[in-house]
């Protein structure tokens, strides 16, 4: 993760402490809201902790709804942060129970969003820090590279790791994406449960989107 000044961290804390609201869920590309605010999107396997991370960033427990049934996020969900920024939750992938037709439908929706969203500043691809990048993630990485959208790996559930394992996983992940054209050359190590890495991720998002207070 990059270095941020105390001022940047504090500004980001203030921004993400402001009101965050659910805007809408879109099952079709035609339903997307007008591209009138900068957006950052979160992608990842259906059990990687996207809802927990989004909730952790804004300091709310139930903004993004986590489900006990993986793969429930089958729409593109939009959240508004103080009328300045949108957080976008993309459909999860790696579902075991969904039919191939269902999977294709929602993966195509995610791809359409990635390709055509002029206000999308970056995608944060969430990966479970205990397991690292797996073959199932390759399709998502390929889709992001193909869409030429800047993306950054965010390792989740860092609190489940033993001491020193997090740094090793960050290094291994950086090496794995080094030759991918759209991958941003930094990896965030986070724990939504413990708050680890969230101040820096907030600052990263603020810097990336150019949003100011």
From TrEMBL:
Q: Which residues form the EngB-type G domain?
A: 36-211
Provide the Gene Ontology terms for cellular component.
cytosol
Protein keywords: Cell cycle, Cell division, GTP-binding, Magnesium, Metal-binding, Nucleotide-binding, Septation
UniProt cofactor(s): Mg(2+)
Q: Which SUPFAM superfamilies match?
A: P-loop containing nucleoside triphosphate hydrolases
What domain of life?
A: Bacteria
GO MF entry, a single one? GTP binding
Which Pfam families does its entry note? MMR_HSR1
Tell me, what is an example of a GO biological process annotation in this record? Answer: division septum assembly
Among InterPro entries, the record links this protein to: G_ENGB_dom (IPR030393), GTP-bd (IPR006073), GTP-bd_ribosome_bio_YsxC (IPR019987), P-loop_NTPase (IPR027417)
**Keyword GTP-binding part of the UniProt annotation:** yes
Which CDD domains does this entry report, sorted A to Z? Answer: YihA_EngB
* NCBIfam families reported in the protein's UniProt record: GTPase_YsxC
Record-linked PANTHER family:
ENGB-TYPE G DOMAIN-CONTAINING PROTEIN, MSS1/TRME-RELATED GTP-BINDING PROTEIN
Q: What does this protein do, in the record's words?
A: Necessary for normal cell division and for the maintenance of normal septation.
* UniProt family annotation: Belongs to the TRAFAC class TrmE-Era-EngA-EngB-Septin-like GTPase superfamily. EngB GTPase family.
Which named protein is this?
A: Probable GTP-binding protein EngB
């Amino acid at each position: 993760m990059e270095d941020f000044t105390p001022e940047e961290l504090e500004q980001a804390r203030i921004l993400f402490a402001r009101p965050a609201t659910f805007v809408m869920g879109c099952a079709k590309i035609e339903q997307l809201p007008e591209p009138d605010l900068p957006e950052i999107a979160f992608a990842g396997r259906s059990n990687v902790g996207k809802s927990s991370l989004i909730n952790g960033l804004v300091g709310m427990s139930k903004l993004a709804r986590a489900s006990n049934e993986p793969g429930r996020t089958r729409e593109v969900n939009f959240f508004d942060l103080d009328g300045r920024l949108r957080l976008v939750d993309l459909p999860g992938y790696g579902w075991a129970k969904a039919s191939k037709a269902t999977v294709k439908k929602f993966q195509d929706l995610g791809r359409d969003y990635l390709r055509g969203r002029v206000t999308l500043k970056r995608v944060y691809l969430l990966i479970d820090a205990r397991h690292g990048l797996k073959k199932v993630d390759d399709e998502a990485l390929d889709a992001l590279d193909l869409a030429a959208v800047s993306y950054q790996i965010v390792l989740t559930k860092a609190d489940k790791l033993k001491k020193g394992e997090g740094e090793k996983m960050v290094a291994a992940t950086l090496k794995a994406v080094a030759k991918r054209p759209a991958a941003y050359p930094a990896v965030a190590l986070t724990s939504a449960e413990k708050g680890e890495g969230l101040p820096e991720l907030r600052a990263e998002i603020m810097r990336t989107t150019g949003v100011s207070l």
